[in-house]
Amino acid sequence: MLPVLDEEIARHRIARRVAMEFQDGDVVNLGIGIPTLVSDYIPENIRVIFQTENGVVGAGPKPENEDLRFIGAGGRCLKPIPGGALVASDMSFGLIRGGHLDATVLGALEVDQEGNLANWWIPGKMVPGMGGAMDLVTGAKHVIVATTHCTKRGDPKILPKCTLPLTGAKVVSLVVTEYGVLRMDSGEMALEEIAPGVNLGEFKKVTPANYRVSDDLCQMKGCELE
Amino acid sequence: MPTSVIKPVMSAEEAVKRITDGSSVMIGGFNYGGIPYTLVEALVDAGTKDLWLISNDTAYDDVGHGRLVVNGQVKKVTASHVGLNKSTQRLFNEKKMELELVPQGTFVERIRAGGFGLGGVLTPTGVGTVHEEGKQVIEVEEKRYILELPLRADVALIRAYRADRYGNLVYFGTNRNFNPAMATAADLVIAEVDAILEIGQINPNDVVTPGILVDILVLKGDSYYASRT
Q1: Is B229 exposed, middle or buried (0-12, 13-18, 19+ CB in 10 A)?
Q2: Less Cβ crowding at N or C end of chain B, within 10 Å?
Q3: Domain CATH for A214
């Protein structure tokens, strides 16, 4: 049996692991949901510059006093860090589309073995719009998917082929869930890390995508800190 | 001094009278930030109809230009994200309003193209997705790009921090967003600002939107969001 995890533990496990991917000096955009939590887990020995698509380069934490003149992409107040920059949307998306972001971290409705990502629309339901997601997955150097392994209904999200409208085709670099880490490597998906208490057979049952198990498979990093 | 370069200062009510039924209207803002609230509220009060609203999002049902949608004044929306305004989605689903969704970077680049005299832009954003459908795809050096066409409007309602009497604008915080791009891409540009200064009080080094792009200045009002943004 797969370990049943409290949702908060799962979300923080994913965020902590994603934060280990960054290099000192990386410029990173975080999506809403689990990706937002990533900023809490940046290792102390590196400095990451957070970019928000509405125009902050160097977004800092939520300030004590709310000032609606400084908000993040999710609408929450933030404070630019000392040394930060405030830019217009054309520059902000120039940074995103021009390859100046090292990574973008986004959630997923579905992701597949070819690195396709669907995260903006479920046909038949309300149409929220893609916002900046299509630009981010096309322009950022690394696209990191931070998502629970299955939907709330228990349906797997990591599939042979996405069924929902794509956000981007063949754009994903890494998928981090509460059960493991899958990396895209030369167009192939490879399982690199697996969470404690999960065996390969159980992982396979909730992961319909074709993937190979890395020769260097190890325990999911960061779980020892929980 | 010749008065032609001095920009008229009007009340929001007076300024939005220039917007006629059926106009295309760009409105600046991202989420709560950088919306010309006072102008938008005046436009809601004016009841101008059949508008083509071009804005990044449609704010919230009871906030900013979201109220134009709720009020039934909008026949078409071009935006990147409308998920926070339930009325936009409902009216679209009921086929009472057109909705064109555009990736956000493409949205601002189309406006930039409209304002900068470009015939369009080529971008890989959306290639291999439903956004590509019905659009021209051009291959350049073995990479596929979507041709995105320029976007212009009859009127742009923008929000800035301070203006001088020439209409030169500076911005503040994350209120800048789409406003400088929209100021280039409309036949009539109305800017809502916190303060209007005398000529010389804004350092030319600090100007983001040159006054030659701005037609009318309006001082922001004291409604909840206008006074807090």
Answers
A1: buried
A2: N
A3: 3.40.1080.10
How far is Cα B42 from Cα B13, in angstroms, rounded to an integer?
5
A70 occurs within a structural domain: no
* CA-based torsion, A54, A56, A62, A65: positive or negative: negative
Asked if residue A48 belongs to a domain, the reply is no
Q: Is residue B142 part of a domain?
A: no
Q: Is A202 exposed, middle or buried (0-12, 13-18, 19+ CB in 10 A)?
A: middle
Query: Which domain CATH number covers B58?
Result: 3.40.1080.10
The catalytically annotated residue of A7, A8, A21, A53 is: A53
The total number of structural domains that make up chain A: 1
Number of domains comprising chain B: 1
| CB of A131 less than 8 A from some CB of B | yes
A192 part of a folded domain? yes
**Alpha carbon distance, N-terminus to C-terminus of chain A:** 21
What is the residue range of A17's domain? 7-37+99-225
Confirm whether A178 is domain-assigned: yes
The answer to whether A129 contacts B32, with C-beta atoms less than 8 Å apart, is no
Helices (H), A22-88: 34-37
- Interface contact B57, partner A, CB < 8 A: yes
pLDDT in tens, B147-187: 999 999 999 999 999 999 999 999 999 999 999 999 999 99
* Subunit contact A127:B82, Cβ cutoff 8 A: yes
**Is any Cβ of chain B less than 8 angstroms from the Cβ of A168?**
yes
* Residue-averaged pLDDT of chain B: 97
Contact A129 B81 (CB under 8 A): yes
Give the domain range for residue B166: 9-107+151-223
Query: From first to last of its 226 residues, what are the pLDDT tens digits of chain A?
Result: 788 899 999 999 999 999 999 999 999 999 999 999 999 999 999 999 999 999 999 999 889 999 999 999 999 999 999 999 999 999 999 999 999 999 999 999 999 999 999 999 999 888 899 999 999 999 999 999 999 999 999 999 999 999 999 999 999 999 999 999 999 999 999 999 999 999 999 999 999 999 999 999 999 999 999 9
- Collapsing DSSP to helix, strand or coil, B115 comes out as helix
Task: Provide the pLDDT for residue A155.
Answer: 97
CB pairs under 8 A between A and B: 142
